[in-house]
Amino acid sequence: MALEDAKNQVDQAFTRDDLKGPSFENAFGGATSFLRRRYTKDLTGVDIAVTGVPFDQAVTNRTGTRLGPRAIREASSLQPYDPPYGWDFDVLSEFAIADYGDLAFDYGHVSQFPAALTAHIKGILDAGAASVTLGGDHYISFPILKAYAEKYGPISLLQFDAHSDTWVDDDMERIDHGTMFYKAVKSGVVDPATSVQVGIRTTNPDTLGVTTIDAREVHENGAAAAVAKIKQVLGDRPCYLTFDIDALDPAFAPGTGTPVWGGLTSGQCAIMLRDLAGINIVGGDVVEVSPPFDSTGATAIAGAHVATEILCLLGARMRRS
After folding, report:
1. Which of 93, 184, 241, 273 could form an SS bridge with 190, CB 3.0 to 4.6 Å?
2. Cα(213)–Cα(13) distance, rounded to whole angstroms?
């Protein structure tokens, strides 16, 4: 950590002159972009764009995930001093990563939101970058996946979650964070035969052919076995990773709209995300961080680390291309 630099560096979200490298400004001060990356709407030369989607219309219980992107950015201010732990490369130094800011939408016209988000992500992909999205409730993954499927065809989904979110709902216009993956499968956006859900611990009579690794299986067989099974199912197909923070047990992430006991530990998730290096990931998100229900900030910290691991997984894939 270059402490000397903290005397001169501040507001790197606006003042840094490039998109690569660490940041050494004081963690407790300055503008809080994700990992102190530069805020920009110019995606020229950008490899990965981090964007926020402050949307929580569709929550089951506790609202507040619209504040998730802001909290995750703030929590990430402790991370940009060193290369992410456990990786054999520094994603912050090797790749041009920008904070693309948040999606703008009219909260008074909720029905217009999905198309606005799809267009937002499509703009990132058309510019040649991958997206890492900070949510927001889990519904946001469906409009995002539509943009990815337009580019890659039916996508493989890797979902960390307490809930499968494939409950039956044939009204494609309904905005619901518990049925969006049912719709994604039924509309041909997601390929269920090459998709995996990890950490599930709520009942659903029909997973639509998606492979399920429930929380008990991870606890009993270990993180390494789960990773091996995930890689076998995904193969080398383009994959989108979505991480609902309630995949973690409430002891590790109490600030979520739908906490469920018996969940994954932060240690298990750290191992799995790191060891998934090699999958053909093309984008990802972390959702359902609801800071009003966690005064400690632990949930936002977990969200910031998950988003960083997604950046590293994308970097690992880009290094091979």
Report:
1. 184
2. 39
Which helix or strand (DSSP H or E) is residue 219 part of? helix 215-221
Q: Name every residue whose Cβ is closer than 8 Å to that of residue 128 and which is 6 or more positions away in sequence.
A: 43, 46
**How far is 315 from 96, CA to CA, in rounded Å?**
10
In 3D space, the residue among 177, 152, 182, 188 whose CA is nearest the CA of residue 166 turns out to be: 182
Q: Write out pLDDT tens, residues 114-158.
A: 999 999 999 999 999 999 999 999 999 999 999 999 999 999 999
End-to-end CA distance of the chain: 31
Residues 6+ apart with CB under 8 A from 222: none
What average pLDDT is seen over the chain? 95
Residues sharing a CB contact under 8 Å with residue 277, sequence separation 6 or more, in sequence order: 87, 312, 313, 316
Distance from C-alpha of 137 to C-alpha of 115, rounded to nearest angstrom: 16
Q: Are 229 and 211 in contact (CB under 8 A)?
A: yes
Does pLDDT of 1 surpass 60?
no
CA 10 to chain CA centroid, nearest Å:
27
Q: pLDDT confidence of 2, banded at 50, 70, 90? A: low
pLDDT value, residue 174: 94
Order the strands of the 48-53 sheet from edge to edge.
38-39, 97-102, 48-53, 130-135, 281-287, 239-244, 156-160, 196-200, 211-214
Q: What's the DSSP call for residue 84?
A: P
The amino acid that residue 178 corresponds to is: G
Helix (H/G/I), strand (E/B), else coil: 236: coil
Q: What are phi and psi of 199, to 5 degrees?
A: 95, 5
CB 246 within 8 Å of CB 200: no
Degrees to nearest 5, angle at CA 44 with 40 and 47: 85
- Biggest alpha carbon distance in the chain? 58
Distance from C-alpha of 265 to C-alpha of 262, rounded to nearest angstrom: 9
> Residue written as tokens 């049925």?
179
Query: pLDDT for 262-302, tens place per residue?
Result: 999 999 999 999 999 999 999 999 999 999 999 999 999 99
Distance of alpha carbon 75 from alpha carbon 255, whole angstroms = 13
Under the banding of pLDDT at 50, 70 and 90, the label for residue 204 is: confident
